[in-house]
Amino acid sequence: MNKLEIGLIGNPNTGKTSLFNSLTGTYNYVGNWSGVTVEKKVGTLKEINGDLIDLPGVYSLNPLTKDEQVATNYFLNENFDSVINIIDASQLERNLHLTLQIAEYGKPFMIGLNMIDVALRSGMKIDVEKLSSKLGVPIIPLVARTGKGITDLLSILKNNEVKNPNTQLVTFDDEIEQIITDIMVILPKNLPGNARWYAIQILEENEPVLNYLNELVPISSFEKHINQAITFVKEHSSAKSFKQYAHQSRRKAILHLIDDCVIKENTRNISLSSKIDKIVTHKVLGIPIFLFLMFIMFKFTFDWIGTPLSDTLDSFISGPVTDFATRLLQDIGASDFIKAVILNGIIAGVGGVLVFVPQIFILFFFISLLEDSGYMARVATVMDVLMEKVGLNGKAFIPMIIGLGCNVPGIMAARTIEQPRERLLTIILTPLMSCSARLSVYSLFVAAFFKENQAIVVFSLYLLGIITALLLAVIFSKTIFKKEQSYFIMELPPYRKPQWISLFRSTWDKGKGFVKKAGTFIFGGSVAIWFLSYTGPGGFNVPLDHSYLAKIGGFIAPIFEPIGFGTWQAGASLITGFLAKEVVVSTMNIIYHAPNMASLTHVIGGAFTPLSAYSFLVFILLYIPCLATVAVIKKESGSTKWTIFSMIYSFVIAYILSALIYGIGTLLGY
Ligand code: GDP
Ligand code: MG
User: Fold this and answer.
1) Which of 8, 11, 13 has most ligand 1 atoms within 8 Å of its beta carbon, as the pocket-test mutant?
2) Which of these, 581, 585, 588, 605, lies nearest to 544 by C-alpha position?
3) Which residues line ligand 1 (CB under 6 A)?
4) Please, is 445 exposed, middle or buried when counting C-beta atoms within 10 Å of its C-beta (0-12, 13-18, 19+)?
5) Per-residue pLDDT tens for 201-219?
6) pLDDT tens-digit profile of 602-656?
7) Cα atoms found within 13 Å of the Cα of residue 369, Cβ hemisphere only
8) What pLDDT, in 10s, does the model give residues 162-173?
9) pLDDT tens across 387-432, in order?
10) Atom of ligand 1 nearest to the CA of 14
C-alpha cells in the first residue's frame, strides 16, 4: 500500500499542534496564541502508514501573510490524500470560513471538532451528526490536549472513511454564479481540486492561486471576469471588494448552519474570563500589571528559587565533579597539558555556564506558564496601543517575547507580520531582547556586585532592552522605514488551566538550546579560548598576561576605557562573546581561573566597580547579536545590508548607553 499523506489545517490556536503531537508521538512547540507554528512540520502516523503535515494556522485559503501562504501552496502543489480540518468548537462561526473554502476545494476531508470541553463549559451543544451530514464529511469531537477522541479519529483514517464534501455550501448571486461558470470553462483541465474553487479564488484575487495558474494560462484572460464581478458587487452589495463579498456570503451560510446545528444555553461561566480581561487589558492598569508579573518572575528566578539551586549545582561541579576528574586524570597518567585543557579549559568554561541552567529554566517555566494560560495574548493586546505609537503593531510583541528565550526563534516568529516593512523592523529590533544567554552573564555579575538587589538589577536590564527597542522603533520608522497602514488581528484565546506536561515540555523547548550550546559552541569556544590563554608569542604555558588572548583583548581594550571597562580581560570576553553570549562567562572563568563561583565573583568584584559592572552588563545586553542570530537575520531578511546594519546600530547604541551610564554615574560619584 502506498504511504498516505494527510494535511492538518485550521485556524491559529485551535489545537493543531497538540493533535499533531499526540497522533505522531512527537513534541512540537504548543503555544496559546496565534503565530507559533510558522513552518509546516511532518510526522509519521504509524497506525495507518502515513505522514501527517502540521500546517501553520490560517483563517482563509486566501493568504495575507507569508506563513499563511504555506497552507495555500500546500493545497496547490502537494499531492496529499486527505485533510483533517481542526475546528475550535467554541469559535465555530470564525472557524467555519476556512472549512467552507476547504469544502469548495473538494478533496476528501474530515473535521476534528476540538475544544469540545470549552464549548460545553460555555453552554454550547453541537449537533455533530447534523452538521456532519450538511457538510458531507465525518466530524469527530475532540479534546486534543487530553487525547480524547483521538482513537475515533484514527479509525476514520484507518478505514478510509474520509468523504468528499458538499462543495456548494455557499451560493452567490446568479450573476456571480454565471461569471464563475464562465471562468470554469476557460480554466485548464486536470487541476488538483475543483474548478469552482479556482474560479472563486481568482475572483478573490488570491495571489498564490493566480501565480500558480499563470504557469498554465495567462492571467489576463480572467481580467474581464474579475472586473465584471467587482462592478456587480459594488452596485448590488455593501461590500467594497469581491473578497469581502465572498466573506459576507460565507458568513450568511455559516449563520444558517449554526442556527440549525448549535444550541446555545445561557451560562454565567463565560463572564469570568471577560472579568479577568477587564482588569488585565485595562488601558491604564494593563502595563503595570504586566511589569509587576515580570518582576515577580525575576524574584523567583533570582531571589527565591533559582539562585539557591544554581549555587548548589555550582558546589557540585566545583566540588565532586572537579575532584573526580582530577583524580581520574591522575590515575590514567594524563600529561600536564591534557590536565590543563580539561580542568582549566573545558570544566571551567562549560561548567561555568552550566551552573546557570536552574535559573534559566525557572525563568522559562514562568514564561511558559504565562503563555499557556492565555495571558500573553492579552499582553500583546495591551501592548498593541503602545506598539502602534512606535510604528509597529501588537503582533511584533510576540517575536519579542519569544526572543526573551532565544533571539533566533523570536526572529523567525516575525513571519506572522503582514507588512514587509514592519516585519523587517521587528527582525532588526528583536535582538535587543535579553535572551537566556545574556542571563548567565547577568547572574555572574549580580552575584558579585548586587547581591541584595539581584532581581531588580536584572529586571532593569530586561526593561532597558524592551524600552530601547521601542524607542528605536520610533526613530527608525520615522527615518529609514516609512510607515505603512497596519492592522492587528489577534483574537483572545480563552484562559486555560495550564497543564503540567505541556508546561514542562515548553520550558524544556525553550531551554534546551542553552544546554545543547553548552555541548557544542561553548565546549569548542572554551577549548579555543583556553588555548589562546595558554599560548603566546613566548611559546606554551606563558603567564596569562603574555598570552595571545591578552594581546587580542588588550588591542581593543582602549575602545572601552571611556565606558568603564578597558581591561584586556573585558575586551577578550566581548570578542569571544560574539560566538554566543554565554561564552563571556566561559572566558571569564578561564581567564580568572577560579575554582568555583564564589571565588570567581570575588575576583570579578576586584576587576570591576559596581558602576563599571552595570555599564558592562548594559553593553553585553546590546552590543551585537550573537553569531546564530546574525545568521537568522540574514536568512529571514534576505538582505546583507540589513544584517550589517543590525550589527552596527546595536554596537553604536550599546556604546552610547554604556557611556551615558558610566559618565553620569561617575559624575554622581558612584
Ligand atoms: P495550534 O496553534 O492550532 O497549533 O494550537 P496548539 O496545539 O498550539 O494549542 C493552542 C492551545 O490550546 C494550547 O494552550 C493547548 O494546550 C490548548 N488546547 C489544545 N487542545 C485543547 C482542547 O481540546 N481543550 C482545551 N481546553 N485546550 C486545548
Ligand atoms: Mg501550532
Assistant:
1) 13
2) 588
3) 10, 12-18, 30-32, 36-37, 57, 114-115, 117-118, 142-145, 372, 496, 502
4) buried
5) 999 999 999 999 998 988 8
6) 999 999 999 999 999 999 999 999 988 998 899 889 899 999 999 999 999 999 9
7) 11
8) 888 998 889 999
9) 878 878 667 887 888 888 888 888 887 877 767 888 899 999 999 9
10) 3
Atom of ligand 1 nearest to the CA of 11: 3
> What would be the CATH architecture of the domain defined by 4-158?
3-Layer(aba) Sandwich (3.40)
Q: CATH 3.40.50.300 region(s) of the chain?
A: 4-158
DSSP tag of 481: S
Contact call for residues 397 and 610 (beta carbons, < 8 A) = no
Which ligand has its closest atom nearest to the C-alpha of 39?
Answer: 2
Distance, CA of 102 to CA of 83 (rounded, Å): 9
C-alpha cell at 582: 554565554
Question: pLDDT (tens digit, 9 = 90+) per residue, 449-482?
Answer: 999 999 999 999 999 999 999 999 999 988 887 6
- Residue nearest to ligand 1 atom 2, measured at CA: 13
Cell numbers standing for residue 523: 565546549
Rounded Cα–Cα distance for residues 524 and 115 (Å): 47
Is the whole model's pTM more than 0.70, yes or no? no
* Angular region, 385: left φ>0, alpha ψ -120 to 50, beta rest: alpha
Q: Is 114 annotated as a binding residue?
A: yes
Residue 294 has pLDDT above 50, yes or no: yes
* 52 φ/ψ angles, rounded to the nearest 5 degrees: -115, 130
Number of helical H runs and strand E runs in the chain: 33, 10
What is the residue type of 59?
Y
Bridge partners for 52 per DSSP: 6, 43
Q: Is-contact 317 354, C-beta < 8 A?
A: yes
The answer to whether 12 is a known ligand-binding residue is yes
Amino acid at 85: N
Q: Which three cell numbers stand for residue 543?
A: 603567564
Residue with cell 465555530: 92
Inter-residue contact 427 to 636 (CB < 8 Å):
yes
Distance 12 CA to ligand 2 centre (A): 7
Is residue 67 within 8 Å of 38, Cβ to Cβ?
yes
pLDDT exceeds cutoff 60 at 319 = yes
CB-facing half-sphere around the CA of 576: CA atoms within 13 A:
33
Q: Give the ligand 1 atom nearest the CA of 10.
A: 3
CA of 95 to the centre of ligand 1 (A): 14
Number of other residues whose CB lies within 10 A of the CB of residue 501: 10
CA of 430 to the centre of ligand 1 (A): 26
DSSP string, 12-75: TTSSHHHHHHHHHT------SSTTS--S-EEEEEGGGTEEEEEPPP-S-SS-SSHHHHHHHHHH
